[in-house]
Amino acid sequence: MRHQKKTTAAALVVLLTLVFAVSTQAGERKRLSFELEAGPVWQSKNDVRIPGNKGTEFSFKDMTGEGPYAAGRFTFVWDFKERHGLRFIAAPLRVEGTGTLTQPVSFAGGNFAAGVSTKGKYKFDTYRLGYRWLFYDKNAWQLRGGATLLLRDAEIKLEQTGVTATDSNVGVAPLLNFTADWAFANRWTATVDVEGLAGGPGRALDLALKVRYDLTDNWSVGGGYRTLEGGVDTDDVYNFSWFNYVFASVGYRF
User: Fold this and answer.
1) CATH no. for residue 121?
2) Facing residues of 214 across strands?
C-alpha cells in the first residue's frame, strides 16, 4: 500500500512537470486550473456486509451517525488542446465514529456483540484521471464529455474490546464523465458535473451542482452541492452508500 502511494505521488509529479513545460508554450489562453473544495459531508446510507455471501449486514450510518464529517477535494485540469483536456481529481473520504450495533455482527472474520461500544472507520479515497472533449462551445454554454479511470483505496474497520476486524480493497474502475458550464452573467458560471457508470455487480455516481464567481482573471471562489452514491455486491464485499456534501471552493487559472 505504501509503495502504491509513493508510485501515485511520483506519477503526479511527472505529470505536473510535463504540464508546466508545455504551458510555457500555451500562449495567452488559460489552459491550466486548480480547484480546492472543502466542507461538511453527511452519510444518508451506508450498508455493509463482509464477506458479501456470509457476513451480517449492518448499517454503518446507524452505528456512527449521519455526521457531518469534514471532507475535501483537489482538482487539476489541463486543456492541452483547444477541445481536448485532462483532469486529475484527488477525493479522500473518511468517516469515523463510535456507537453500538443493534444485532450481533459477523464482519471480516470477527464477531461483534450488540449493545457494546464499537468504533468504526470507513475510508473511500479515490484518485481519478479523466479525458474530456469539448464538443459544444457557443451561446455562453460549454459542454464536455469523456471517460475517467478511477483508482480507489477503500477500508472498513470495526473495533470492540478484544475484537478488531478490517477489510481493505484497492482497485481500478472506469467511469464516464460529463460537464456543462453556463456563463449566465458577467463573471458568474454555473456547472453541472457528473462522473459515473452502472453495470455488473456495482454502480457509481458522483454528481455536483456548482456556482463560480471570478474575482479576477485568475482567481475564483464558489460553492455547491455534491452527491456520491454507489456500491458493489459480490461474494467478497457488499457495500452500498450515499453521501451528500455542501462545499465552498477556491480556484486559480493560468
Assistant:
1) 2.40.128.90
2) 220
Rounded to whole angstroms, the Cα distance separating 112 from 145 reads: 46
| The amino acid at 180 | A
- Rounded Cα distance between 169 and 157, Å, is 12
Per the listing, cell 461474494 goes with 235
pTM: 0.87
Q: How far is CA 95 from the centre of its chain?
A: 13
The per-residue pLDDT for range 93-102, each reduced to its tens digit, is: 999 999 999 9
Pairing relationship of beta strands 105-107 and 238-253 according to DSSP bridges = unpaired
Find cell 462522473 and name the residue: 195
Domain count across the chain: 1
Residue 61 sits at φ, ψ, to 5 deg, of -60, -45
Name the burial class of residue 30, with classes exposed (0-12), middle (13-18) and buried (19+) by CB atoms within 10 angstroms of its CB: middle
Q: Hey, what's the cell of 174? A: 472506469
Closest CA to 121 of 57, 164, 151: 164
Task: Report the pLDDT value the prediction gives residue 29, as an integer from 0 to 100.
Answer: 65
Q: What is the residue range of 137's domain?
A: 2-253
Determine the residue type at 230: G
d(C-alpha 211, C-alpha 192), whole Å: 9
Is residue 205 within 8 Å of 189, Cβ to Cβ?
Answer: no
State the DSSP string of 124-166: EEEEEEEEEEEEEEETTEEEEEEEEEEEEEEEEEEEETTEEEE
Q: Where are the alpha helices (DSSP H) in 46-162?
A: 60-64
pLDDT of amino acid 20: 47
